[in-house]
Amino acid sequence: MNPILREYVLKGLYLGLWAWLAIVQSPASPDWPRFYAVLAGIAGGLAIGLLAGAVVQIRRGYRPSANYKAFPFVVLLESPYWIYLGILGGLGLSAFIAYPQLEAPTTRDWLIYFAIAGAVLGYGFYQLRAVRDFATRFIVALVVGSLIIYLGVHYLFQIPGFNTVAGQHVLGIVILAGLPGFYLLTFCGEAEESEIEIAALCAGFGIGAYELFAGRESFFGEKFILLAPLIAYFVYVTRLMPFLRVFKHTLRGYSSLNMNRPVEALLSFKRALTLSPKDELAIRGMWQLHERIDVETLPQNSPLLEHLDYGFCLDQAAGYLIGSSTPSESQRQRAVRMIDLVERQKPILAARVDYLRAVALTHAKDFDAAAATLTRLLDPATPYTDTVRNRVLFDAWELARRLH
């Protein structure tokens, strides 16, 4: 199964199990010790998952002492399998042990039905995530979340036992208690957070808050409570989620970089810069990664060559050659190695390659070779990609003027 699809199915399974737990909790005389036992089971499973994830990261070569503040985030983001196993295993096992009602055939059937419905819901979330247009995803998720709130508010009240104020309070507490676990699954997963998951989270918050405050007088009234999840959804999706996406990819990039896994680091940094091209932390990580790569020793079949950002390689070479008026010989040689690599792997960037090579030759005082390279670059008959050539044409003429 696709790892991303598996994550979404497991998230849906969590929602299904928690919905079952909310229903079997007696509204007339809730057995809170049993419910607390389930929460303790989830916490224990999470602790075991975190411990297993920490061991895995240490065995991979990560040292917590290198950055003890970032290490917990590294464990969360780099070991999602163990986190999922801990939370879902703790929930399922503790619910099975804590509630003897599971022995009743009807309740057992309910558990199966809720689990299947949750898995189907997770698959539906996965399909909605595949929508590429942000506006469409945003609106569809908003509609789905609003529909969940509507169904929850209007039909949960009709379940026997939950048609009283006391029963609604119990249901609200149980629903709200399950939201942190679902958010943790969303945060640590390999898949990027999507609007549909946040909509489901906000919908759960809206239903839980509405049920919890049912029958109570409030300054704003019960209906205003339903506006809170809509506001939370808008703020999170438009403000917090873009930042968290970039942060998680950048953190994964640094983690892979520290554990000498350049391909994984490169993919993480590239994704972070795709989402936020001006993110300084991701740019710094990309620079560190390219500085560690010895392009002369890379074999032709290296998987790293398939994923290198060759435009960034030329930017780095330009930083060495143009960033300072007098680059050192080691900087010039490193820039030349970068230029040679791009020339071999990315012919479409030949115009930028020739311009930077002319700059490097000028710094080496090989003016004849620099002039020959510029002559080829400025000749309209040379078959360059026009868009690439136009980017360096003015600078090339300026260099030719100064060189002359």
Secondary-structure-based class equals mainly alpha
Radius of gyration: 28 Å
From the spread of the alpha carbons, the general shape counts as elongated
Total strands: 0
Average pLDDT: 85
Element layout with pairings:
Blueprint: H1 3-24, H2 32-60, H3 71-78, H4 80-98, H5 105-129, H6 134-155, H7 165-188, H8 195-212, H9 222-225, H10 227-258, H11 262-275, H12 280-292, H13 303-307, H14 310-321, H15 329-345, H16 350-363, H17 367-378, H18 386-403
Describe this structure in words.
- This protein is mainly α and 404 residues long.
- The radius of gyration is 28 Å and the shape is elongated.
- Helix 16 runs antiparallel to helix 17 and helix 17 runs antiparallel to helix 18.
- The longest helix is centred in the middle third of the chain and has 32 residues.
- The mean pLDDT is 85.
- It is built from 18 helices and no strands.
- Helices cover 76% and strands 0% of the residues.
List keywords for this structure.
0% strand, mainly alpha, 404 residues
Quick description:
With 404 residues, the protein is an all-alpha fold.
